[in-house]
Amino acid sequence: MNLLSDRPGLKWRIIRKCGKIKMWSDISGRYGKQKSEMEVEIKMHEFKTSLDLVFADSFCDFAGKENIGKDDYILTNDFLYEKFVKPLDLPCESAFIEAYGKGEPSTAMVDRIRKDLPEGIRRMIAVGGGAVMDTAKMLSLTTSSGKTEDLFDLSPDAEEPKKLFEVYAVPTTCGTGSEVTNACAAELVSLHTKRGLNNDLMFPAKSVLIPELIYGLPYRFFATSSIDALIHAVESYLSPKASPISELFSEKAVRMIMEGYLYIDRNGNEKWKDKAKEFQIAATYAGLAFCSAGCAAVHALSYPLGGGYHIPHGEANQLVFAATFCKYKEKKPIGKLNDIENIFSEILNVPADEALEAAFAMFDRIQPRKPLKDYGISEDELRGFAEGVEAGQKRLLSNNYVPLTVDEMVEIYQAVY
How far apart are CA 266 and CA 54, in angstroms? Predict the structure, then answer.
């Protein structure tokens, strides 16, 4: 199958093999004479997924269809268990992640849960937000040491983990996208920072979207999770790893979330539930996009805030979102970022050159931000944050719209201090 390109003589070809879509450029025509005279860089792009996506009207319907039994295990939160799981009197064991630690997962927290798991689990059903689903993914893998932190060892001689059981991912927020990705994130206790991990063994065996699970979400959690989904979508769209396929999911997610925000901005915060289903689907679209194209500097810069000060993930991302994109605009005003500006411009009905400012103003009405200093962060820490990001988040920084120096990352932090 050929996709159209705006460059003469450049065709994109897609081949599906082993569940992956791989893409590469085939340079021909008037470029042909140059191939023997110069080295031509050919970039391969990959759209990766392993997807069994289920839509259910209720958790009761899902549980009945899946015939949840004694060899299954539910990982969730206490309040979700009481409302959706307990009334069903299911025969499987359950655990609440908050019993093992507060906030987002750390490797130590996952290790504590791991010690209490029964033997012979066939399926772990993760009912919750990103923290629950990411924890389930980490628990599904093991190495000979039994330590979760060793899963994050990416050295050439690192031991390959083995899979213990399948994960069924059932999101209860509209932001993480973890239900359709091979990724997780956790605070590495030894480094006092947050790190991400990608491993194809962590693709959920089944992803289940149940709108009733998010209707009870407090507004603040809706707002911070949905802004996270928007950031997933725009960062993956701008990533150099983006492909025409990932871009389809990125753009659709951006449009759905922006249209939902505009509706809320006009009708009031309490009206978000009118668009709950759309926000949930948009988060999944964004997850499908960033699974292959990746996230970038916004996520990288947020990790010291989440790891060091336990600022919730979506909230930490929003803190640096506007300043990062202003830096992008300053460094490369003409480029793919203009596509995002045009989408914002169309939806918000403002000129394209005012679209970023208008969009970020709306985001701050949807969920007001606080300056970094209000979290107890010292201005003296900002350079250390940036240096830590430069040293430890190359996986994310490689996906940037433009490269950022340590000094430029410090400027981003200073802009929101």
Answer: 32
| 106 contacts 148 by C-beta, under 8 angstroms | no
Residue 145 φ/ψ region, left for φ over 0, alpha for ψ in the -120 to 50 degree band, beta for the rest: alpha
Asked whether residue 28 carries a pLDDT value surpassing 60, the answer given is no
Per-residue pLDDT, 196: 87
pLDDT digits (tens, 9 = 90+) for 262-287: 999 999 999 999 999 999 999 999 99
Contact 22, 44 (CB under 8 A): yes
Name the pTM for this structure.
0.88
Contact (Cβ atoms closer than 8 angstroms) between residue 184 and residue 177: no
Note whether 101 and 108 are within 8 A (CB).
yes
**Kind of pairing, strands 10-17 and 72-76?**
unpaired
Distance from the first to the final alpha carbon of the chain: 49
Domains delineated in the chain: 2-42 (no CATH), 53-213 (3.40.50.1970), 219-415 (1.20.1090.10)
Question: What does each C-alpha distance from 189 to 111, 204, 356 come to in angstroms?
Answer: 11, 25, 37
Does 235 score more than 50 pLDDT?
A: yes
Give dist(CA 251, CA 374) in Å, integer. 34
Which of left, alpha, beta for 179 (phi over 0: left; psi -120 to 50: alpha)?
Answer: alpha
Number of residues in the chain: 417
pLDDT in tens, 133-185: 999 999 999 999 999 999 998 888 999 999 999 999 999 999 999 999 999 99
Q: Which residue has the higher pLDDT, 353 or 21?
A: 353
Cα–Cα dist 189/152, whole Å: 12
Average pLDDT, the chain: 90
pLDDT tens digits, one per residue of 191-219: 777 888 999 999 999 999 999 999 999 99
